[in-house]
Amino acid sequence: MAHALGHDEKTLAKVGAVGGQALIGALDPRIRIALACLFGIVTVALTTIPALVAALAVALGLLSVSRLPPGRTLKRMALMDGFILVMLVLLPFSVPGDAIFTLWGFPASWQGLWRAIEIGLTANAAILALMVLVGSMEPVMMGHALHKMRCPEMLVHLLMFTIRYIEVLREEYLRLRAAMKVRGFRPGTNWHTYRSFGYLVGMMLVRAMERSERILDAMKCRGFSGRILLMQEFALTRRDHIFAGAICVLCIGLLALDFAWR
């Protein structure tokens, strides 16, 4: 299932599982998922800038001990920041408060600026910790860990099939686009372009349905009965307990720091 990831994601997962074997990669996958959820909840609950800065420092510390490539990881973080950049820019103009300056008749408030900074720090700290603890995990291993954590089996199936076949659908899309280019299609702002893209979406849906039927028949021929067959057993070690305890202590420290600065 790992080949469903892109080249950068596969490299990142491999580095996290092998290069980071000294700490993050050697942890029990269930512990990694649970700690990522715990850290995310605690980070979202923080409301003061010093506590959020400390949470981001903790996430950067996890990145440093995971042996993931910092440049590639931070580049992916920057791509995530691009989605919320517009919201962060507009937030000072949408939250009432003490004006910093006025742009085209719209005042920007200090309260909105601080709120934007809080959201940016929260998002970066939570996502970076999630990428380090869970993003470097093989999809099959993550599915097995979720199944062991008593997650609904149908949701686990949905997750694993989505990761596996989203790349298959992408390759199908690229083949259809290549066929359109060979036939001389050049996109523009006209009804022919809109109609052609409509046909492309419709053909993608048809191909997806046909592919799903073939996959279902192949799975039935291989004896698939709707149950997940685990290829390995997970066992908690002393290292897992120590790491989990350290993260819990850090989370308590973040909450205490946040309470002290309120």
Describe this entry's structure for a reader:
A hairpin with a 2-residue loop joins strand 1 and strand 2. Helix content is 74%, strand content 3%. The chain has helices spanning 7-19, 29-45, 49-66, 70-94, 110-135, 139-148, 153-182, 191-221, 238-261, and strands spanning 99-103, 106-109. Strands 1-2 form a two-stranded antiparallel ribbon. It contains 9 helices and 2 strands, in the order ααααββααααα. The relative contact order is 0.16. The longest helix has 31 residues, at 191-221. With 262 residues, the chain is mainly alpha-helical. Mean pLDDT is 78; it is low at 1-21.
Q: Descriptors for this entry?
A:
single chain; 262 residues; mainly alpha; two-stranded antiparallel ribbon; 9 helices; disordered N terminus
Summed up:
The chain is mainly alpha-helical and 262 residues long. It contains nine helices and two strands; from the N terminus they run ααααββααααα. A hairpin with a 2-residue loop joins strand 1 (99-103) and strand 2 (106-109).
